[in-house]
Amino acid sequence: MRQAGWKKSQVSVQATTNNALFTSDTKAPLSDFADTTSYEIGLGRKFGTTWSSSIAYNWEGGSGPESTSYFTLTDGRQGLSVGAKYNFNENTAISFGGNYTDFGKVTFEAAKGGFVFSGNTATTLGLNISHSF
Asked: What is the pLDDT of residue 7?
């Protein structure tokens, strides 16, 4: 379980206006992040002295199905991770893992119209070769 305090980490830009009548320095917000909690539950198994593997399900709630921020274009996510490790000897090993994530649908509303972001996914793969001495 992981909690992220995104609400206090907004993105803004300094807007400065200078003309003959007044000078104004204000911060214009570009984001509307919400605090989130993500969860991951998994199972690992060792198969003898050389092989081990793992599988995990991960989930994070979103901030809602509608957004007005270009930085918040998903309504949460859920994914599946798998991994395997092979030990050649006590000093050398190779690990491989992957994750498939499905992002939640969100409707983005802007001043000039709206867009629907749906069906978005991400696939990540990793490989690690290690040697300790």
From this structure: 78
* Residue 24 pLDDT level (bands cut at 50, 70, 90): low
What is residue 32's predicted lDDT score, i.e. its pLDDT?
72
Judging by DSSP bridges, how do beta strands 77-87 and 92-103 pair with one another? Answer: antiparallel
Going 126 to 104 to 80 to 6, the CA torsion angle's sign is positive
Question: Do the bridges between strand 106-110 and strand 66-67 make them parallel or antiparallel, or are there none, so unpaired?
Answer: parallel
| pTM of this prediction exceeds 0.85 | no
Q: What are the backbone dihedrals phi and psi of residue 123, each rounded to the nearest 5 degrees, phi first?
A: -120, 125
Percent above pLDDT 90 for the chain: 47
Measure the CA angle with vertex 62, ends 60 and 66; round to 5°.
Answer: 160
Residue 131 pairs in a beta bridge with: 92
Token pair for residue 120? 């978005």
The arrangement of strands across the sheet holding 2-4 comes to 2-4, 36-47, 51-60, 77-87, 92-103, 121-131
Strand, helix or coil for residue 32: coil
